[in-house]
Amino acid sequence: MAKESLGDKLEKQVQNLKGGLKGVAEKLTAEDTEPRTDAMAGPISGSRPPTQREREQTKEQLYAEAQRLDVKGRSTMTKSELEKAIRAARR
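Request: output the structure for the sequence above.
Response:
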């Protein structure tokens, strides 16, 4: 009988893990009869709505502020992403 390679052993372990996780997910889903919505999850920790000043700023103004704060990736961000990144950079 041929000796099992390390790759084969790892593949079996991965399949066992996937099977176990799938079983747990199915059990939890079957037990949870109440439908869930994003609103039930509540706000994301540390997030807050933009301030009045931030809402009044144009994307160009927000970009300039992000540039001053050296926010990485600012050139591809939307206005709302710039607002969030600026808030995070100010912390």
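DSSP finds five helices and no strands in the chain.
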